[in-house]
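[User] Could I get a sequence and structure tokens?

[Assistant]
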Amino acid sequence: MGDLERILAVLGEARRRLVRLAIVLVPLFAFLITFELKPLPVRVGSVTLPLAYPYPSLFYNVSAQAFDALRAWALPPGVELLNLGVGDSVIAQMEVAALLTVIFGMPWIVHEVGAFLMPALRGNERRLIRQIGIPATVLFTVGTLLGLLYLTPFTLRLLFYYVAAMGASPVLGIESFVEFTLLYSMAFGVAFELPVFMYGLTRLGVVPAASWRKHWRGAVIGALVFGMVVTPDNTGITMMIVATPMIALYFGGLLFAARWEAGARPPLRPAAAGA
């Protein structure tokens, strides 16, 4: 098979995987913006199960319900949300629905990406992906939930203390609120993947632990740049809140990589007597 045939085969496989992803993700996204979940409490003995059933609703849909929960949890008390642009509410619903689609569809996404990459990987690379797949997913989930449930509300309250100190009205645009909350929370999820990434590269022999140790200063600068890029505001406060745990995670990844490398290194043979 020539190079052109191999490239066409890879592109054809990628197209097939993308179509399979779309078959699952597009209907899921459509459901989130066209249905709402109506409560249906079911009593079983002395226990009431908080169930729900889908009901068609184009405007107050699952995405809008998730937005209400996000606003109740993360928005500081006394801050008023404003619809500044004509389509801001629509865009906000689309963004929330897109995030929920990625979260709920992640098992299928991982399956299709893995099925696409597996034929090109060596045996040790396949074993490594299987071993770190679950830890990577758990770390991403923990980081995102930590950012969404704790660090995002804390950061918004901190920033609005400055608004109160300036005597300005505590208002926030709907689209700005959604973008800040989602991007800020996702940034922590991505940052929590750093130790797994470092450990995987060291296990594959691509980057030795000594190299991670040598370039820690560049990693600190990289964490600051990452915090500056992913946070949608222009303050250095949010950048530092993202960069600080990322720097700690870097040194945690360095520790795990060094421990694995030390355990994988064959022990030195003692010198023969009289040599």
User: Anything to note?
Assistant: The chain is about 70% helix and 10% strand. Confidence is low (pLDDT under 50) at residues 271-275. The radius of gyration is 24 Å. The longest helix spans residues 123-165.
